[in-house]
Amino acid sequence: MNILTLYSLFMGSFFLLFSEVCNAQKPIKMKTEENINYSCNINTGDCSEKHNFEADVKLKETPVLKSKLKIRYYYDALCGWCYGFSPVIKQLKNTYKNQIDIDVISGGLFLGNRAGLVNDVAPHIKAGAYKSVELMTGVKFGAPFLEDVFGAGKMELNSLPPTIALCIVREKYPEKELAFAATLLKAVYFDGINPVDFNAYLIYASEYGIDSEEFLTKMNNPLYKQMAINEFNTFRKSKYSGMPSLAVFKNDIEIPISKGYIGYDDLKVKLDQFID
Hints:
By secondary structure, the chain is α+β, with helices and mostly antiparallel strands. It has two domains: 3-60, no CATH class; 69-272, Glutaredoxin (3-Layer(aba) Sandwich), CATH 3.40.30. It is built from twelve helices and eight strands. The strands form three sheets. The protein has a four-stranded mixed sheet with strand order 4-3-7-8, sandwiched between helices. A two-stranded antiparallel ribbon has the order 1-2. The radius of gyration is 37 Å and the shape is globular.
């Protein structure tokens, strides 16, 4: 056997051995279903779930949220019928809390020549108008209020101070404006505070988390007075002549749904026409 033949036999054996070693290093494919969604690295020994980018996109998609229906409540803190309407608007807010947003606009019922002592500018109250409100709405006027009306009559009706107070609370806690609007009505018609006495509002402002000193400073700040005046002007430009009144906004168009007092059941029927 010559040297060339020996060399050929040696090289053939070497390649056969090398091929077997390499084949032994190839990863074994696991054909079980459990491994379909997994990828393993034989060099690092790391097995991890396959990355599904399509699934990731679906998970990260932001759901389309329906916008809430905007409702505007035209009211005044010295409006007796608004006092009677407070339980209705509160129930409406609670029923549709995930579907509606309510903003409050003060109408300025007692301003300028219309402002003054209760029995001078609102003699209808003493004449028995409050009884009609109680009968139709179920609310009760408080003894302190009625004692003043039928007594000394020292209460001064002026819509500006309570509207300024509402502007202060709304600025700091916009989500509380409807509740504070109702609080102002109760403060006057049940607790019998004098609307022109700034200090009389302090106990109510503190219940809403506003410091007394801060509140009084803002009550005397012309900026908040102008905010109140702007609200009165908004009401004057509206389609309403009285309060309480409600409007909905669809495609930025204001649509009246109620003028004057309305019970909850009747109001719900009207509102349901606009709820998607």
